[in-house]
Design brief:
single chain, about 120 residues, alpha+beta
Length: about 120
């Protein structure tokens, strides 16, 4: 009984949860993915994680580099740098603090995937 500890407001679990997309973010991204696959624009996807960011990578073909990345910045410097859309060279196309806003306000049909 002497080894029982009470831990209140454990911030470690909150940080562990933030190391990936939460359910609401993932639902928004996968809804977009389903729409673009049925459209014939996107073929495959993958997730990549790092210490600073988590990204949803979109592929035209599975053997190539990702053509687009929807990225969640885990350590943003500014508020509007929470979510990015990057092209295959890593250049930021759009950025926002709200993922729903970023996905709905981006005109995906105008973004041409370069072959």
């Amino acid at each position: 009984m002497n080894k029982i500890k009470l831990i209140i407001n454990n911030d470690l679990k909150k940080k562990e949860r933030e190391r990936f997309f939460i359910k609401k973010e993932l639902k928004c991204i996968l809804n977009l993915y389903a729409k673009m696959v049925s459209n014939g624009s996107w073929r495959d996807y993958a997730f990549s994680t790092g210490s600073r960011e988590v990204s949803f990578d979109v592929y035209q073909r599975t053997s190539e580099k990702p053509v687009l990345r929807i990225t969640k910045n885990l350590k943003p410097v500014y508020l509007n740098e929470k979510y990015f859309i990057k092209d295959k060279d890593g250049k930021i196309i759009k950025k926002s603090e709200n993922l729903d806003y970023l996905i709905t306000k981006t005109s995906w049909n105008k973004l041409r995937l370069i072959k």
